[in-house]
């Protein structure tokens, strides 16, 4: 009896000790889990704070870099007018119309400026250029083309801030762009507006001095462009010039157009290397498949340039080339847009010979043409 009771007490002590050990282990486990959770939470919170701080720093860095790009670009924008300005306010007498105020973009450090032809005027004419610091210089138009509404002006000044030329053939829909210019004259000079590329290779019909004119291969943007912005810069996020803004289209909201810069690169390069540019002339007026529907909906072309008119005093006058012929290639270069043809000829000199590959009524033929001096 005594033995059995002693045995039971011993079993109780063992069970009690076992329970104490289990409880102690559970307590340690709970305590360690709590510490780990606290540590994990603390670590997570620290990582979160670090991420937010880094993200804020990156955003600030991005904003600073973007602002620096825009500020550098703005310094290359000039005002252009046909009459010397007298300080009149646009709000008093619509100075941008009276003086023909517009914008221009310095493209070399020695004073070449790219702008619209309708802002600067025709070749050999003069205009007045207002620099960033307010100094006004006389500029001479050294090249102009009314059909693409571009002109190049030269001023006698060096060490100028200028915009690098971008590649207008390497832009895409929805790319972010900025338009910079002097809307409404000098009251709002150096205005920057932001937008995207809304469309590419646009063809538009405009009325110019009572005649219908077709501008092809344009960049469409929703960046705001007002009167006075004409001739200003359309730049990409790297601050490179990809187009020259034009506001010949003024009857639509949220739709602006720019002439792609690549078309004039051959001219700019020649001016930089030779100090002059003698323009070769093919003597043709033509349209690509985007413009043809404006002329005649019954005319169908798959590619190439539709010959609309041959200049009577041009190099094609006595070459049996007629209205309705299609130019498919010049030398070995396939032509799909009128600006492709212009750009190719801009790379040539008067007196150079080119081969036109053509079609008439489905039949192919070629013509050797000697380019004339425009």
Please report the first level of CATH classification, the CATH class of the largest domain: Mainly Beta
Question: Major sheet: size, sense and barrel closure?
Answer: 6 strands, antiparallel, barrel
**What overall geometry do the principal axes of the alpha carbons give?**
elongated
Strand content: 25-35%
Q: What is the rounded Rg? A: 35 Å
Binned, the helix content reads 25-40%
Please name the CATH topology of the largest domain: Pdz3 Domain
In CATH terms, the superfamily of the largest domain is PDZ domain
Question: What is the CATH architecture annotation of the largest domain?
Answer: Roll
Strand order of the largest sheet: 1-2-3-6-5-4
Give the low-confidence spans.
86-98
Helical stretch count? 7
Distance between the termini: 134 Å
Number of strands: 20
Averaged pLDDT: 83
Topology of helices and strands:
Layout lengths: L1 H73 L2 E5 L8 H4 L1 H4 L3 E5 L5 E4 L1 H4 L5 E5 L5 E10 L4 E5 L21 E6 L9 E18 L2 E11 L11 E3 L5 E6 L9 E5 L4 H10 L5 E2 L2 E4 L4 H4 L9 E6 L15 E5 L2 E2 L3 H9 L6 E8 L2 E8 L1 E2 L1
Antiparallel strand pairs: 1-2, 1-4, 2-3, 3-6, 4-5, 5-6, 7-8, 7-10, 8-9, 9-12, 10-11, 11-12, 13-20, 14-15, 15-16, 16-17, 16-18, 18-19
């Amino acid at each position: 009896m005594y033995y059995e009771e002693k045995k039971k007490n011993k079993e109780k002590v063992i069970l009690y000790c076992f329970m104490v050990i289990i409880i102690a282990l559970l307590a340690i486990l709970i305590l360690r889990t709590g510490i780990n959770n606290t540590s994990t939470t603390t670590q997570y919170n620290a990582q979160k704070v670090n991420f937010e701080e880094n993200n804020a720093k990156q955003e600030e860095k991005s904003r600073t870099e973007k602002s620096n790009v825009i500020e550098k670009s703005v310094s290359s924008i000039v005002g252009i007018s046909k009459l010397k300005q007298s300080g009149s306010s646009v709000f008093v007498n619509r100075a941008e119309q009276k003086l023909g105020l517009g914008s221009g973009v310095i493209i070399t450090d020695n004073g070449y400026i790219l702008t619209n032809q309708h802002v600067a005027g025709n070749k050999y004419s003069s205009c007045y250029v207002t620099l960033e610091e307010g100094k006004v210089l006389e500029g001479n138009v050294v090249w102009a083309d009314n059909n693409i509404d571009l002109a190049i002006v030269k001023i006698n000044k060096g060490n100028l801030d200028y915009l690098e030329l971008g590649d207008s053939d390497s832009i895409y829909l929805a790319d972010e762009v900025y338009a910079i210019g002097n809307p409404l004259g000098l009251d709002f000079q150096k205005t920057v507006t932001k937008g995207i590329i809304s469309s590419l290779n646009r063809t538009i019909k405009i009325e110019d001095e009572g005649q219908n004119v077709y501008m092809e291969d344009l960049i469409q943007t929703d960046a705001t462009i007002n009167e006075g912005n004409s001739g200003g810069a359309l730049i990409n996020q790297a601050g490179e010039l990809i187009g020259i803004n034009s506001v010949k289209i003024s009857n639509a909201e949220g739709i602006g157009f720019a002439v792609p810069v690549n078309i004039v690169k051959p001219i700019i390069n020649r001016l930089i290397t030779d100090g002059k540019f003698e323009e070769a002339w093919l003597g043709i007026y033509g349209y690509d498949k985007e413009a043809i529907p404006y002329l005649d909906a019954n005319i169908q072309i798959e590619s190439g340039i539709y010959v609309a008119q041959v200049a009577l005093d041009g190099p094609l006058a006595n070459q049996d080339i007629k209205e309705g012929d299609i130019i498919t290639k010049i030398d070995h270069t396939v032509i799909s847009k009128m600006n492709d043809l212009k750009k190719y000829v801009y790379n040539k000199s008067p007196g150079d010979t080119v081969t036109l590959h053509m079609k008439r009524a489905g039949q192919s033929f070629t013509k050797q043409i000697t380019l004339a001096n425009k």
